[in-house]
Write a structure and sequence with these properties.
The protein has 332 residues and is α/β, with parallel strands linked by helices. It has one domain: Aldolase class I (TIM Barrel). It is 31% helix and 18% strand. It contains nine helices and twelve strands. The chain has a twelve-stranded mixed β-sheet. Helix 3 packs parallel to helix 5. The longest helix is centred in the last third of the chain and has 23 residues. It is globular and about 55 Å long. The structure holds S-adenosylmethionine (SAM) and iron/sulfur cluster.
């Protein structure tokens, strides 16, 4: 049988990581992510779960070793755990890791199922440990539910990484306490710079916190030791003292790591975006429906041919977002 061609872009980067946005919908409305009256895609525009699986499996056949299911909120999509089970069967058959990013609101109900599907690590967004602040930032979030979901996932043997977007005057003062909590709980922590993706109800420039300043503050309070491991993304990592906790800084604005980028993103509509920060995409839904595997391969190759060298994010007062798509559409 002929081997499926590997995924190498025109800049020589090998693509081994696929993020799949299984829905653009969400049960929260985090202020930095979407507007309160966010419009979602009509349901008939979405790929079926079977189609999402078929596309992901083709990526695995072509060399993708890591898949992250995301959204929107992946756990609001019906059939999500079926998808996780189907892709989980590829672990050891090309796929090394199946993971998920979630807001945690529905995590308690599915933690055992995700673990049974082979999910060993997940990212949970948690921007504050104060219930009122948490509700304010997410507009509808229930901190106790999210903490319950995290506890259920940990009890099911799933390692937790907390995602926290650093926000001026909303949670910046809580970052040291969040890191201390993660160390105490045995979780990793990724701090994220707010990115200019899609319109929201406020000016992102008013909330932007450069992680360079956050790092200086944290390194005075904690014993941070640089960890060279890289995920091919915009993150840099540190060990926190002798604890197992890893601190990650995702700073696409103040530090650009596009040279090592190894990822592409599939939207729930079937569009393949080769870069989070650009509008170029190819339509895998049409390719799959009209051309089967050969059509899919040709469309994937087309996306690799247009993957840009780098994103060009900037946050300035009054500036339009770098791209009109929200993170929830492309899959964060
Ligand atoms: N709903 C899930 C969640 O919140 O974890 C998964 C999707 S969400 C889009 C993925 C990650 O992107 C979350 O950690 C969220 O905090 C982050 N995010 C969303 N919008 C962002 C933005 N404009 N800039 C930076 N991070 C953002
Ligand atoms: Fe929903 Fe995640 Fe966006 Fe928050 S960050 S609104 S949880 S998609």
């Amino acid at each position: 049988m002929a081997t499926a061609p590997a995924l190498i872009d025109r800049h020589g980067r090998t693509i081994s990581y696929l993020r799949v946005s299984v829905t653009d919908r969400c049960d929260l409305r985090c202020r930095y992510c979407m507007a309160e009256d966010m419009r979602f895609l009509p349901r008939d525009a979405l790929l079926e779960i079977d189609e999402l699986a078929a596309i992901a499996e083709r990526f695995i056949a072509r060399g993708v070793t890591k898949i992250r299911l995301t959204g929107g909120e992946p756990l609001v999509r019906r059939g999500m755990t079926d998808l996780a089970h189907r892709l989980g069967r590829q672990i050891g058959n090309g796929l090394d890791e199946l993971t998920l990013t979630t807001n945690g609101m529905r995590l308690a109900e599915v933690a055992d199922d995700l673990s049974a599907a082979g999910v060993r690590r997940i990212n949970v967004s948690l921007d504050s440990l104060d219930p009122d602040r948490f509700r304010h930032i997410t507009r509808h979030g229930d901190l106790a539910r999210v903490l319950g979901g995290i506890a259920a996932a940990a009890a099911a043997g799933i390692a937790i990484k907390i995602n926290m977007v650093a926000l001026k005057d909303l949670n910046q003062d809580e970052i040291p306490a969040m890191l201390a909590w993660c160390v105490e709980q045995g979780h990793d922590l990724s701090l994220i710079e707010t990115m200019p993706l899609g319109s929201i109800d406020e000016d992102r420039a008013d909330r932007f916190v450069p992680l360079t300043a956050v790092f200086d503050d944290l390194s005075r309070r904690f014993d941070l030791v640089r960890d060279a491991r890289s995920t091919g993304g915009p993150a840099r990592y540190w060990r926190v003292g002798a604890s197992p906790t890893r601190l990650g800084l995702i700073s696409p604005l103040t530090a650009n790591f596009c040279d090592g980028c190894n990822r592409v993103r599939l939207t729930t509509e079937g569009r393949l975006y080769a870069c989070l920060g650009h509008d170029d995409q190819v339509d895998l839904k049409v390719a799959l429906r009209t051309g089967g595997t050969a059509g899919l391969d040709a469309a994937i190759d087309e996306a690799l041919a247009i993957k840009p060298a780098r994103h060009d994010f900037r946050i300035a007062a009054g500036a339009a977002p770098a791209v009109g798509r929200h993170m929830s559409v492309t899959g964060g």
